[in-house]
Write a structure and sequence with these properties.
single chain; mainly alpha; 5 helices; about 0% strand
Length: about 180
């Protein structure tokens, strides 16, 4: 499991936006802008590549879960729809967290973070954390249709992946200045 987990985690880590520990340097005075058409084309390509990459990460995560759950066919028929719903709700939480991180990164890079913004972002992240705990509690109840050990194992796998991702994000996100 450790080798599979490491492979999934290293793949997933590339999907997390990297936030520099120092402010971005100003563009040199002689820098020129890329033509708008080229920039738009590059942006579409990057978006397409990221979408493909994220689909690969999702597929790899599902393989990791499948390899570690030891489900019978009957259990799989019950489990996989619950897994898909969990992932849908987790994505919504991740999108909210990503928006908060991007807002912080933008203000940090521009050196424009105010006390009010910092307080709002802190409250947003704490609310996301509370919502995540509520979601896990809800799914612990939903997973009660599974044998108790397998339900616990799934939540443990999700928790380990989440903890590793959170650790990487914590390392990458600079302290408020």
């Amino acid at each position: 499991m450790k080798l599979i987990s490491a492979a999934i985690l290293s793949t997933a880590m590339m999907a997390i936006p990297a936030f520099a520990q120092t402010k971005a340097p100003a563009a040199p005075a002689t820098a020129t802008k890329a033509p708008a058409a080229t920039t738009a084309s590059a942006s579409k390509t990057a978006d397409s590549n990221m979408a493909i990459f994220l689909e690969k990460v999702k597929a790899d995560k599902k393989l990791l879960v499948a390899a570690n759950m030891g489900l019978t066919d009957a259990e799989g028929k019950v489990f996989w729809p619950i897994y898909d719903q969990y992932q849908t709700e987790l994505k919504a939480l991740n999108d909210r967290l990503s928006a908060a991180i991007h807002a912080y990164a933008d203000a940090y890079t521009k050196n424009t973070l105010t006390d009010a913004q910092a307080t709002k972002l802190t409250n947003d992240v704490l609310t996301i954390d509370q919502d995540e705990v509520a979601m896990r509690k809800k799914f612990a109840t939903t997973l009660a249709v599974m044998p108790g050990k397998k339900a616990a194992r799934y939540l443990q796998i999700e928790n380990k992946i989440r903890a590793a991702l959170r650790s990487e994000m914590a390392d990458a996100i600079p302290l408020v200045q």
